[in-house]
TrEMBL record:
It comes from the Bacteria. InterPro entries: Fumarylacetoacetase-like_C, Fumarylacetoacetase_C_sf. Belongs to the FAH family. Residues 95-296 form the Fumarylacetoacetase-like C-terminal domain. It comes from Salinicoccus cyprini. This is Fumarylacetoacetate hydrolase family protein. The lineage of its organism: Bacteria, Bacillati, Bacillota, Bacilli, Bacillales. Keywords: Hydrolase, Metal-binding. One of its GO terms (molecular function) is acetylpyruvate hydrolase activity. Pfam families: FAA_hydrolase (PF01557). The keyword Hydrolase applies. PANTHER family: ACYLPYRUVASE, ACYLPYRUVASE FAHD1, MITOCHONDRIAL. One of its GO terms (biological process) is carboxylic acid metabolic process.
């Protein structure tokens, strides 16, 4: 299943993509019309938190079946051309991110490959698919992109073993780790330079694990204004998904809905010769096979 959060007719909803249609089932409306739980989840984060992963999918599947059989299916759908995508979830913690987790990316920026280089991005930096974000030229001249696979946690994880870590994954999404390179260098740390408003585009969907059975063997392609900049694969990750999750859980209690950005392959603007940073009016499209494409526009 592909879950999303969106604005539709002046309200914010969450839903699941309709199969073979460019539209979403509006899940709160399905729960109200066909569910038997008055305390149904009002947000996707509540849905992930309230139910075990498979239980939630089964609830949704049954609701969709009832809607299809009602003869009024369109009443419960929102066409994609009438919605505004939002980040699928706002995680309980900041977005947790791994840097230098692709050897080629570390080398293009003349950084050493570390076994553990972790930072966070403020939740206020989240942005949705097709969103226009500020160009931030008042504080940076080196705005850059990083296409990444995001892992969404499905249940509380605290000091878990790597052998069990994959069981804690709810699904996957796409993240654009927008970074002000000059600020990152000047500050000698990553938080502020990576937490600018709109600095964490995410989406368009969270796909459940069954939709992406080989997350460590999938492509990541980033295009700027239609030209390929990054063309990599998650198989290049230094620390694999089970290692990332287990390592973070040693120090941070991960909650359902938390998101981990797993690093980026080579091809960022700062690594080009000469460097090519994002400019007002630019379009960035990040595609991950099995999830979709996340599009971000840089404001003029």
């Amino acid at each position: 299943m592909k879950f999303l959060t969106f604005d539709y007719r002046d309200q914010t909803y969450y839903g699941v993509k309709v199969k073979r249609e460019e539209s979403a089932w509006i899940l709160p409306k399905l729960f109200e019309a066909f569910g038997d739980d008055e305390n149904y989840p009002k947000t996707l984060l509540e849905g992930i938190s309230k139910y075990h992963t498979l239980d939630f999918q089964e609830h949704v599947r049954k609701l969709v079946e009832k809607a299809q059989q009602s003869g009024k299916a369109d009443k419960y759908k929102a066409p994609f051309n009438e919605i505004t995508f939002r980040a699928p979830v706002t995680p309980p913690n900041n977005v947790i991110a791994f840097g230098r987790n692709y050897k080629s990316h570390a080398e293009e920026l003349n950084n050493e490959v570390h076994s553990l280089y972790v930072f966070t991005k403020a939740a206020t930096s989240l942005a949705g698919d097709e969103e226009t974000i500020p160009n931030h030229q008042d504080i940076t001249s080196q705005l850059d992109y990083e296409g990444e696979l995001g892992v969404v946690i499905g249940k509380r994880a605290e000091k878990i073993q790597s052998s069990m870590a994959l069981d804690y994954i709810y699904g996957y999404t796409i993240i654009n780790d927008i970074t002000a390179r000059d600020l990152q260098k000047a500050h000698h740390q990553a938080f502020l330079s990576k937490s600018l408003k709109g600095g964490c585009p995410m989406g368009p969907f969270i796909v459940t694990k069954d939709e992406l059975p080989n997350p460590e063997q999938t492509s990541i392609v980033t295009k700027v204004n239609g030209k390929i900049r990054q063309d990599g694969s998650t198989k290049e990750m230094v620390l694999k998904l089970d290692e990332l999750i287990a390592e973070v859980s040693k120090y941070v209690t991960l909650e359902p809905g938390d998101v981990i950005a797993t690093g980026t392959p080579s091809g960022v603007g700062a690594g080009m010769k000469p460097p090519q940073y994002l400019q007002p009016g630019d379009e960035v499209r990040i595609s991950i096979n099995g999830i979709g494409t996340l599009t971000t526009y840089i404001g003029k």
